[in-house]
From TrEMBL:
PANTHER family: STRESS RESPONSE PROTEIN NHAX, UNIVERSAL STRESS PROTEIN UP12
Pfam families registered for this protein in UniProt: Usp
Domain spans labelled UspA: 1-128, 142-280
Superkingdom classification of source: Bacteria
Protein name per UniProt: Universal stress protein
Family: Belongs to the universal stress protein A family.
Length: 282
């Protein structure tokens, strides 16, 4: 079954930018595009006509820009969180509009957007209102974070390499590290560090090992390896200004106040100036 790229539409500038980002990606990948709008059932009578008009206008604009792109629309008369999570499960990627330095807007009010990102089993891409096709120009990198061992960031690396292959882009893989507390050293870890020649060479070696299978699978994708001491979120953001997309893995967990997203993904999705893909673990 061919999965569509699905995008949430609410008429805001952010969601319309998300529509056009999703359309360009669907054209590149040869996938259909699905436009959806969700709202609370209690608002159905008053809201449905406006929502339908919004979807029709977006679909009409896409038909003019991308006449050969298959586009479908649907009104989701149900709670936005489970509706969008369900839509994501059947999609290649879910795309949502996002406001920088704040919460996701539109029908994703308050914590709803974060719940969707935290619960989705498929990648979710967040797009700013000022996003333009020009940001995908040659020379602008796809930046992706890597941490831990070879398998820990596999899903994010796969998304980054697949996207770069479609766009002819370079992948910049970022691994941030910090000085460990003294009590965390063990004889085994000390031996590994000694064999690597110190902390920084050890981190570079770990990054190279994590990248090896993806470079073998995508030999034509140029790769830049970047290791830097510091906060992972800050290191990723430092490269976001020259990026066309930032990809982060998601480490979601539940707490007393509901689903939460890992701190690195949270920082990047709220502050990166370019689109951000949040990828769940495989």
């Amino acid at each position: 079954m061919t999965r569509p790229i699905t995008v949430g539409v609410d008429g805001s500038a952010e969601s319309l930018a998300a529509v056009h980002w999703a359309a360009r990606e669907a054209v590149r990948r040869g996938l259909p595009l699905r436009l959806v709008h969700a709202w609370e059932t209690a608002d159905a009578g008053e809201h449905a006509p406006k929502a339908l008009d919004t979807l029709r206008e977006a679909a009409h604009e896409l038909a003019e820009r991308h006449p050969h792109l298959p586009v479908s629309t649907d009104l989701l008369d149900a709670d936005p969180v489970p509706s969008l999570v369900a839509e994501a499960a059947d999609a290649e990627t879910l795309v949502l509009g996002s406001r920088g330095h704040g919460a996701i807007v539109g029908f994703l009010l308050g914590s709803v957007g974060q719940q969707v990102v935290a619960e989705s089993i498929r990648p979710v891409v967040l797009v700013r209102a000022d996003d333009r096709a020009e940001t995908e120009a040659a020379g602008r990198e796809i930046v992706v974070g890597q941490h831990g061992g070879p398998d820990d960031s596999g899903a994010a690396l796969r998304f980054a390499f697949e996207t770069a292959a479609e766009r002819g882009a370079t992948v910049r893989v970022v691994r941030a590290w910090s000085l460990p507390a003294l009590y965390s050293f063990s004889p085994g870890s000390m031996k590994l560090l000694d064999e690597a020649g110190g902390l920084e060479p050890y981190e570079k070696k770990a990054l190279a090992e994590a990248l090896e299978p993806w470079q073998e699978r995508f030999p034509d994708v140029p790769v830049t390896q970047h290791t830097e001491i510091g906060s992972a979120g800050e290191v990723l953001l430092s490269g976001a200004g020259r990026a066309q997309l930032v990809v982060v893995g998601r480490r979601a967990h539940r707490s007393a106040v509901g689903p939460r997203i890992g701190s690195v993904a949270h920082v990047v999705m709220h502050h990166a100036p370019c689109p951000v893909a949040v990828v769940p673990p495989a």
